[in-house]
Known about the structure:
Layout: E1 2-7, E2 11-13, E3 18-26, E4 31-39, E5 46-52, E6 57-59, E7 67-72, E8 77-82, E9 91-101, E10 104-109, E11 113-118
Parallel strand pairs: 2-11
Antiparallel strand pairs: 1-3, 3-8, 4-5, 4-9, 5-6, 7-8, 9-10, 9-11
Amino acid sequence: QVQLVESGGALVQAGESLRLSCAASGIVKSINVMGWYRQAPGKQRELVAAVFSTGSTNYADSVKGRFTISRDNAKHTLYLQMNSLKPEDTAVYYCNADSVLAGTPFSSWGQGTQVTVSS
């Protein structure tokens, strides 16, 4: 299957930038779509951004114009560039990869990385 390891989370001030990385290993050629999700305390996990194998992207309305998702296929790494961070962006950010192996779909998750934005 696919294993994912996130990095880059930190404590930053409002208005600053941060870049998250997610290194994928395993059967990476089976990945169709990769995305970033986040979960704030007391809230459900929500999709932040996704990038498909075609290169098309999708963003949550709350991050459009501030966050950029990108995927380096050569390095098997997913990135999330976060600019103009707000306190409401504070959450644990998770990397996700959806893949298909022998006709069976799989969804893989990383362990999460904490992003804290102070006002």
